[in-house]
Design brief:
The complex is a heterotrimer of chains A (443), B (144) and C (481). Chain A is of the alpha/beta class and 443 residues long. In chain A, 37% of the residues lie in helices and 15% in strands. Chain A has a 7-stranded mixed beta sheet with strand order 2-8-7-6-5-3-4, sandwiched between helices. In chain A, helix 9 links the parallel strand 5 and strand 6. The longest helix of chain A is centred in the last third of the chain and has 38 residues. In chain B, strand 6 and strand 7 form a beta hairpin. Chain B has 5 helices and 9 strands; from the N terminus they run H-E-E-E-H-E-E-E-E-E-H-H-E-H. Chain B is of the alpha+beta class. Chain B has a single domain, classed as RNA polymerase II/Efflux pump adaptor protein, barrel-sandwich hybrid domain (OB fold (Dihydrolipoamide Acetyltransferase, E2P), Beta Barrel), CATH 2.40.50. Chain C is built from 15 helices and 14 strands. In chain C, the strands form 4 sheets. Chain C has a 7-stranded mixed beta sheet, with helices on both faces. In chain C, strands 12-14-13 form a 3-stranded antiparallel beta sheet, with helices on one face. A two-stranded antiparallel ribbon of chain C has the order 4-5. The longest helix of chain C has 37 residues. Chain C is globular. The two termini of chain C are 18 Å apart. The chains are: A alpha/beta (443), B alpha+beta (144), C alpha/beta (481). At the A-C interface, helix 1, helix 2, helix 3, helix 4 and helix 5 of A face helix 1, helix 2, helix 3, helix 4 and helix 5 of C.
Chain lengths: 443, 144, 481
């Protein structure tokens, strides 16, 4: 029996000490009518057999393709040292650092992560993580609602459609009003957002680069929001923040991000990393765990979970959120990645990705009938319009070993011919050339 | 009872006897542990020694803004300590005229001197203070 | 220990990629770019490895230390599951691959993992269907509360409140509040939910009652049958917080017992690692009547054995996760279930309960045990007596840190004074339990004659007790503040 160490003799001795005849006596409180009606679990397998079975399942997934999928989740190179560090048992088999004296490793790592996030985004305070980039936007919206005591949220349609569906789900039982401002050919409609701001707006929510890859500047929008007493929430792409204008520079109140691009494998949907940062005056509204620096009674510097009075285990129904477990190990991966790459390495990663994407755009738009959906500046991701249905095009090319991008029609009616293409430093110029040839051959 | 609203308060062991020095004679009290000093048409409000002892070292106090209208029994602010958080409830009907600015930088004043330097706010009464407990009644209420 | 920022050397390079041919300014206007390079660390790869190795040495983990944390189920994290979750066939898989044409053609292995895990969890708990989307236990509770809300809304019921026992974990009321409900506390009697107290608050406006069994005191809810009847009679739903599932695997199925919604913590019962605070996963199981409301997508199996993602569920509450849940965590739980099998899962509950009772019995003369009867997988002790002498639960916890153990859970649940909650789990040996009990008894003996020695603990950890008031008042939350 795996993982249970007792021998039958030991079990007998222990039962004797407890004063019961057998193990079943310990379950006497469970009445017969509550016993399992069935328990048809197959017999246990050896470690070898389980590994074989699951390796076969892994082999049934097609990963040896050249993929240009992005849409918020990117295949950047993860330095191998990340796995080595994070797989130390003292990190990954540790619990939440409630007993601070024996958890200084975890606590200092979170403190460093918070610092790294704040420096990358030019804001004052960060939390220890929430589940993912989508739930982070929800939490940011709730911060704004609590702070302003208003109910209206303005959301750009150029924010990830996947996240917008999540936001609708999360808010469905709350007395809030979500208004979506349509995109313009993949551009965030800033004038329309400004026009929609009023005295009931709790926050305006935008994404940079937006879902279509367009890079923008929201300084003016955020100033207008502030003038109306609303907060600004911006969802960003961490790797690209090494080059793009930061939330802090734009005057955002709250920045959130999906941290997957920082050392987390794509892993078919998770675990991922919800990054949150805000200005100092909003920190009491921020959900989740936060680590602070202090000292012990001998003056030694140490780290503790702080501002816990906001959290569910104390405030219960009035907590800033219900979050308990977060994505601590994922945040550690992100921190280690940022340390290994450093400022220079992260910037190079972003620029290598950007130059490849621009090469791809120039090769693809050279194909007759293929054009970008707008001519706005972009970083490492852009959207094109094909003369044929993009869903079908992706199907055909994937069967030939290349996933050309994400077909937009699924989430944006009217863009059935639209294709979203992302490049990272992992793509070679040859692969991009092949992509162009294959699309050229199709259209 | 306050105990039930105080989630996570760590400092709840042996209850000390509340002596009369910790429940001043010249004040009146609410069941939710606010104290009130009425002088003519004006009231000064804070929280009791018992309350600050239960909460532990205060780390943050959120008070209503000057001009805010207080309604008896309704929430008017919050107090936070390291391990606990609790609402402040208005003990009177009034309009806030002054808030203790020192508490922002030094919430510990409430722990050190809850009835003096730790005062929280002043208000002009809208209606006369009713339903408040006498020192003896408050002492009985906290089970001392 | 210095931080990575304090150790940085300007200009030092780590694991950097090649130099790009062109800068960002070649492609984007200056107005869209940040003014200066971010002040991230500047360290060599060895600097980084040394730093984090050093940090790891300032931590406890199940791999190195006994962690009898009540309600957390800190059991051994099997290493083979780490290996499987790291297979490139899973880690390299972009989640959108399953949304391309052919509905999952390229992701059959991953979809099978999801489908099979749902099926196994359904069988283990006796529920009709599962969703693996919730990304943590609390997230599962929120999902459950939203499912309850969707059910009542669809039926046209006017339900405004949710009832929680006063012993409930804080995430229960917090989650119900986000689902739009008012939360009412039910007082326990003799440590368990009292049907009389429940009857006082249970009415036609009650949407649900949230419970766990065994409860947070480690006690089986003896009135459960009656409670189930009472709740269903009001067309309210019964929610099961699965944090304590480790006590009943194979002994009881909550679906059979009458629960309508359950969440499970994979990082507790199913041995996925805690990671210093996450990632976890909180799958939610439902009875048949709640199935239409489950979040989309749902994994389906065709007759020819192929799997696909089904989004056609008009009554679904929508997306709780961006994709299919914390897949990497779910996969580890799946592997664990396969490894244990039927007998192994039954043995989990048997030995978890055996170990807890053994510890309880060995401690009963040294420590006040408020509910000193057969417990389930965890039990509570009270240090109220020691506190009279100046030694509180907190002090005892710190003294245990000095002996190389992680302390038990303290001050939860709130209904026991100076509470310590012990959950040894089934993976600990008798030798470990004996050593721990002996050390704890020694601490209590010292507490009686020399309280100051215990109040000074811990003395052998990298730092001593930290000034939490200063941390909250000064709010130094980054290296720059």
């Amino acid at each position: 029996m795996p993982f249970v160490p007792h021998t039958p003799d030991q079990v007998r001795d222990m039962l004797d000490l407890i004063g019961v005849a057998d193990i079943e006596a310990l379950f006497a409180d469970i009445p017969p009518q509550m016993r399992p009606k069935s328990f048809d679990i197959p017999a246990g397998l050896s470690e070898l057999e389980v590994c074989r079975r699951i390796q076969r399942l892994a082999a049934k997934n097609k990963t040896d393709l050249t993929s240009f999928l992005g849409a918020g989740f990117y295949d950047h190179h993860i330095p191998k040292a990340v796995d080595a560090i994070v797989s130390r048992g003292e990190f990954y088999t540790a619990y939440t650092p409630y007993q601070a004296e024996s958890s200084q490793g975890t606590l200092q790592a979170i403190f460093e992560y918070q610092t790294a996030v704040c420096r990358l985004l030019d804001l004052d305070c960060a939390n220890a993580s929430v589940y993912d980039g989508g739930s982070a936007i929800f939490e940011a919206m709730m911060m704004a609602v609590r702070k302003t005591k208003r109910r209206k949220l303005l959301i750009s349609e150029s924010l990830s459609p996947i996240y917008r569906i999540m936001l609708a789900s999360y808010t469905s039982n709350l007395n809030l009003e979500l208004t979506t401002i349509p995109h313009c050919d993949g551009l965030t409609d800033i004038p329309a957002l400004i026009k929609a701001l009023d005295q009931d707006t709790a926050a305006v929510v935008v994404q940079n680069p937006n879902f279509f890859g367009v890079a923008g500047d929201f300084t003016d929008l955020f100033a207008q929001a502030r003038a109306k007493g609303a907060l600004s929430v911006i969802s960003v792409y961490p790797t690209m923040q090494s080059v793009l204008k930061t939330p802090g520079e734009m005057g955002a109140d709250i920045a959130v991000a999906e941290g997957q691009s920082l050392g987390l494998p794509l892993s078919f949907g998770g675990p991922y990393l919800g990054i949150m940062a805000c200005t100092k005056d909003l920190v009491r509204q921020m959900p989740g765990r936060i680590v602070g620096r202090t000292n012990d009674h001998d003056g030694r510097t140490g780290y503790v979970l702080t501002l816990q009075a906001r959290e569910q285990h104390i405030r219960r129904a009035k907590a800033t959120s219900n979050i308990c477990s977060n994505q601590a190990l994922c945040a550690l991966r992100a921190l280690v990645t940022l340390c290994l790459l450093g400022a220079e390495g992260l910037r190079r990663t972003a620029e290598l990705s950007i130059e490849r994407a621009h090469y791809a755009a120039s090769r693809l738009t050279a194909i007759p009938g293929v054009e970008r959906i707008n001519s706005a500046p972009f970083a490492n991701e852009f959207a094109i319009r094909l003369p044929i249905n993009a869903y079908e095009a992706v199907d055909k090319l994937t069967a030939r070993g290349v996933v050309p991008g994400f077909p937009l029609g699924r989430y944006y009616p009217g863009l059935e011919n639209g294709l979203l293409i992302a490049c990272t430093e992992k793509h070679s110029f040859e692969e991009i050339g092949i992509l162009a040839e294959m699309i050229g051959g199709l259209v | 009872m306050y105990q039930k609203r105080l989630r996570g308060a760590v400092n709840t062991p042996t209850r000390k006897e509340a002596t009369t020095a910790m429940i001043p004679d010249d004040l009146r009290y609410s069941k939710s542990h606010e104290w009130v000093r009425v002088e003519g048409n004006s009231a000064t409000i804070g929280i009791t020694h018992f309350a600050q002892e239960q909460l532990g070292d205060l780390t943050f106090i959120e008070l209503p803004a000057v001009g805010a209208v207080l309604e008896v029994g309704k929430e008017m602010g919050t107090v936070e300590s390291v391990k606990a958080a609790s609402e402040l409830y208005a003990p009177v009907n009034g309009t806030v005229t002054e808030v203790n600015a020192d508490l922002e930088a030094n919430p510990g004043l409430v722990n050190q001197d809850p009835y003096g330097a730790g005062w929280m706010l002043k208000a002009t009464l809208i209606s006369s203070a009713e339903g408040l407990l006498t020192p003896a009644e408050y002492q009985a209420a906290i089970g001392a | 220990m210095k931080t990575v920022f304090q150790n940085s050397v300007p200009g030092r390079l780590g694991a950097v990629p090649e130099t790009p041919k062109q800068r960002a300014s070649a492609f984007l206007p200056e107005t869209l770019l940040r003014k200066s390079q971010s002040r991230l660390p500047e360290l060599s790869e060895l600097d980084v490895v040394r730093h984090f190795t050093g940090l790891s040495r300032r931590n406890l983990g199940v791999d190195g230390n006994f962690y009898p944390l009540g309600s957390c189920t800190m059991k051994y994290n099997p290493k083979f599951t780490e290996y499987l979750a790291a297979l490139p066939g899973f880690t390299d898989l972009h989640p959108l691959m399953a949304q391309l044409k052919g509905a999952g053609h390229y992701t059959q292995g991953a979809l099978e993992v999801l489908f099979e895990t749902e099926r196994l969890l359904s069988e283990i708990t006796g529920m009709a269907a599962f969703t693996l989307h919730p990304m943590a236990g609390a997230h599962g509770e929120l999902t459950g509360a939203m499912l309850i809300a969707a059910y009542h809304k669809d039926k046209g019921n006017k339900k405004i409140k949710v009832l929680c026992p006063d012993s409930a974990h804080g995430t229960n009321p917090a989650s119900a509040a986000i689902a739009g409900y008012e939360v009412v506390n039910i007082e326990s009697k003799d440590g368990i939910v009292d049907p009389e107290a429940l009857a006082k608050h249970l009415d036609d406006e009650t949407a649900a009652v949230m419970m766990t069994c065994p409860n947070t005191l480690g006690l089986f809810e003896r009135h459960l049958e009656r409670i189930v009847a009472m709740v269903h009679e009001k067309d309210a739903l019964l929610y099961y917080d699965g944090a304590n599932l480790n006590a009943i695997t194979g002994k009881m199925r909550v679906g059979d017992a009458g629960f309508d919604v359950v969440h499970i913590n994979l990082h507790k019962t199913f041995a996925t690692p805690h990671g210093g605070g996450g990632p976890g996963a909180g799958p939610v199981g439902v009875s048949a009547k709640l199935e239409p409301y489950l979040p989309i997508s749902r994994v389906r199996k065709l007759e020819d054995g192929r799997f696909f993602l089904d989004y056609k569920h008009p009554k679904s509450i929508g997306y709780m996760a961006p994709f299919y849940g914390n897949f990497g965590v779910v996969l580890k739980a799946y592997a664990y279930i396969l490894r244990l099998g039927r007998e192994g899962l039954i043995r989990v509950a048997e030995h978890a309960v055996l170990n807890a009772n053994y510890m309880r019995k060995r401690l009963e003369n040294a420590f006040e045990i408020p509910y000193n009867r057969i417990c389930m997988h965890e039990f509570v002790a009270s240090a109220a007596q020691q506190a009279q002498n100046g030694v509180r639960a907190l002090d005892i916890a710190k003294a245990l840190l000095d002996k190389g153990y992680h302390a038990p859970t303290i001050y939860f649940p709130l209904i026991v004074k100076e509470c310590l909650m012990f959950e040894p789990t089934e993976t600990e040996s008798r030798e470990t339990l004996d050593r721990f009990v002996d050390d704890l008894i020694a601490i209590l003996e010292t507490a009686a004659i020399d309280p100051a020695a215990i109040q000074a603990c811990p003395t052998s950890t990298p730092v001593g007790r930290l000034d939490e008031t200063k941390a909250a008042r000064d709010m130094v939350l980054t290296d720059d503040l």
